[in-house]
Design brief:
This protein is α/β, with parallel strands linked by helices. It has ten helices and eight strands. It has helices at about 20-30, 40-45, 50-60, 75-90, 115-140, 165-180, 205-215, 220-230, 235-245, 285-299; strands at about 10-15, 35-40, 65-70, 95, 145-150, 185-195, 255-260, 265. An eight-stranded mixed sheet has the order 3-2-1-4-5-6-7-8, with helices on both faces. The longest helix is centred in the middle third of the chain and has 29 residues, at about 115-140. The chain starts with 10 loop residues before the first strand and ends with a helix. The mean pLDDT is about 90.
C-alpha cells in the first residue's frame, strides 16, 4: 500500500464512519497512511458489527484503524472518543465530524415534534461541538491540527425541514468561530457540504421528497437531477484528504462543497448598510425610513 507523506503518521478521528461517506473517507485516508479511529452510535443500539467490518477491511489492506461505538451527542462519551485516539496513536492531528441523522420525512415548522427537533440538534450540532470541544485544547497545545465539520446546502432552507437546516446553519457559524479561536494556534477548521449517494440520500422516500421540493419551487431542476443521480461517496474523498493534510495549511474558516459532479464554495455574507443617522441627531429611526430601506433591500 502506498503511503503518501501528506497523511503518513496523521492520527484522525472520524465520526459517523460505519457506512456511507464516513466509511469511504476512513478507507481513503487510511490507504494514504493515516491512522484512523472510526465512530458510530451503532444505529443507537451500540451495534458494533459495521464498525468492526470497516476496521477489518482497512487492516486487511495494510491500514491502521480502530473503532469506538457511542453517540457523540453525549459530551462525556465524545471526550472518551478523543482520548481513545490519543491512547491508541499517541495524539490527534485531525477530526472529521460526519455523524448525523435524518429529520422525519415531510417535517416542517408546521408539524415537527419537539423531541424530533431536539434529537436532530443533539446529534448534528451538539455532537459537533462536543468532539471539537475535547479535541481543540489538544490540538492547540501541540500547535497543529485540522477539523472538518459537515454542513449541507440545507442551511439555506432549500430542502425543507427545520431542525436539520437549523443545525447545519449553526455548524457553519460554530466552525467560523472555531477557525478564528484557533488560528493563532495553527489549528484549522473548515466545513464540507458533501453530496453522494448514501443510505440517507437514496430510495423511494428520498426521491419522492426531492420531487416534492422541486414541485414546491424549493429545488431547481439542476439540483433535483443532481440529487437523483448522485455518485458514490468514493468520488468525493479527495476533498477530505486535501483539507486534513498540511497541503491545505492556509485554508481555514471556509464553507466548501463537493459532489461527484461539482466543486463549490460559499462566501460568507456581508452586511449591506442601507442608511446612517448622524450621531449628532440622536433620534430614533423613522418608520417611513425603515419601510423604504427594507423594501428596497427585499426587492
Amino acid at each position: 500500500m502506498e503511503k503518501t507523506s501528506a497523511l503518513k503518521e496523521k492520527r484522525i478521528v472520524i465520526t459517523g464512519a460505519s457506512m456511507g461517506i464516513g466509511k469511504a473517507v476512513a478507507i481513503a485516508l487510511s490507504s494514504k497512511g493515516a491512522s484512523v479511529l472510526i465512530n458510530s452510535s451503532g444505529g443507537g443500539k451500540n451495534n458494533t458489527q459495521a464498525l468492526s467490518d470497516t476496521v477489518s477491511e482497512i487492516r486487511s489492506n495494510g491500514g491502521t484503524a480502530s473503532y469506538s461505538c457511542g453517540s457523540v451527542a453525549d459530551y462525556n462519551y465524545a471526550g472518551e472518543l478523543i482520548q481513545q485516539c490519543v491512547d491508541n496513536y499517541g495524539g490527534i492531528d485531525g477530526l472529521i465530524n460526519i455523524a448525523g441523522i435524518a429529520e422525519p420525512s415531510g417535517s416542517s415548522i408546521l408539524n415537527i415534534a419537539a423531541d424530533d427537533w431536539q434529537q436532530v440538534i443533539n446529534v448534528h450540532l451538539n455532537g459537533t461541538f462536543n468532539t471539537c470541544r475535547h479535541a481543540a485544547p489538544l490540538m492547540s497545545a501541540q500547535k497543529h491540527g485540522s477539523i472538518i465539520n459537515t454542513g449541507s446546502h440545507a442551511f439555506q432552507g432549500i430542502y425543507g425541514g427545520t431542525a436539520y437546516a437549523a443545525a447545519k446553519g449553526a455548524i457553519n457559524s460554530l466552525s467560523a468561530a472555531i477557525a478564528k479561536d484557533l488560528a493563532e494556534h495553527n489549528v484549522r477548521c473548515n466545513v464540507i457540504m458533501p453530496g453522494a449517494k448514501t443510505r440517507l440520500s437514496s430510495g423511494e422516500v428520498f426521491e419522492e421528497n426531492m420531487r416534492t421540493l422541486h414541485s414546491r419551487g424549493m429545488l431547481d431542476k439542476q439540483r433535483l437531477e443532481s440529487a437523483l443521480t448522485a455518485l458514490p461517496p468514493e468520488f468525493i474523498c479527495a476533498a477530505y484528504e486535501y483539507l486534513i493534510s498540511d497541503a491545505a495549511s492556509n485554508i481555514s474558516g471556509q464553507l466548501l462543497s463537493i459532489s461527484g459532479r461539482h466543486l463549490g464554495g460559499f462566501a460568507w455574507p456581508q452586511e449591506k448598510i442601507m442608511a446612517y443617522i448622524d450621531a449628532s441627531e440622536a433620534k430614533p429611526w423613522r418608520l417611513e425610513t425603515i419601510a423604504e430601506q427594507y423594501q428596497n433591500f427585499a426587492d
